[in-house]
Amino acid sequence: MSKFVSIFLILLFACVGCSLADVTNIGIPQSPVHTGDKITINWSLSDSSSKSSAVLKITQVPDGNYTIIDNQLELSTLQENWIISVAAGTYYFSIISDDGEVRSDNFIVNKSEPTASYNDSMYFYITNER
């Protein structure tokens, strides 16, 4: 019986070791960022050959409200493009995989910056009245 237990334990540890890739770091965007900005979220893995998927989310500090960015994140891509769709506030990214949850440092999202545009319906009249 101990022979079967030994074989089982060896197979168990071998399977667990080859199927998991630890996310070791999640980058944060360069400040300042604004709602509506397109950013690239980067992360690193302890095993770059991993093909496992995970969930990428952004969470507001301190209330814990979160938005799922990608619920089928391919970890092996090491990046995700995203247009910031959350309100102004303090946030962190997290990746949840079979290994658990890894968080980024906190960062700040600001309100959208107003953009100037030419308005065709606006006319200026100059008169030469005296």
User: Which structural category do the helix and sheet elements fall into?
Assistant: mainly beta
What order do the SSEs take from the amino end to the carboxyl end, as H and E? HEEEEEEEEE
Shape: elongated
> How many domains, as an integer?
1
Top-tier CATH class: Mainly Beta
CATH fold label: Immunoglobulin-like
Keywords: Signal
Signal peptide: 1-21
Protein name: 1792_t:CDS:1
Features of the shown structure:
single chain, 130 residues, mainly beta, Immunoglobulin-like, 6-stranded mixed β-sheet, 3-stranded antiparallel β-sheet, 1 helix, signal
Please characterize this protein's 3D structure.
The chain is mostly beta strands and 130 residues long. It has one helix and nine strands. The chain has one helix at 2-19; strands at residues 23-26, 33-34, 38-45, 53-61, 66-74, 79-83, 89-97, 100-103, 107-110. The strands form two sheets. Strands 2, 4, 5, 7, 8 and 9 form a six-stranded mixed beta sheet that branches. It has a three-stranded antiparallel beta sheet with strand order 1-3-6, with no helix packed on it. The relative contact order is 0.23. Residues 5-9 and 11-19 have low confidence and may be disordered.
